[in-house]
Fold MbtH family NRPS accessory protein.
Amino acid sequence: MNGSPFDAGEGDWQVVVNAAGQYALWRPHLDVPKGWRVVHSGPDRESALDHVERHFVMAVDE
């Protein structure tokens, strides 16, 4: 594989989240870092991004 495995492109994608509620796109062939868990697996990057958009809630100071 040339370049970064996180470059946009074809292939499966996952969404991982940590205890602080931070989300990241991840490739399924890579080990999930300690403290993170998979919350979505999909056939393409767009479905992973859609999952983050639907579930990520950003804290806003008032």
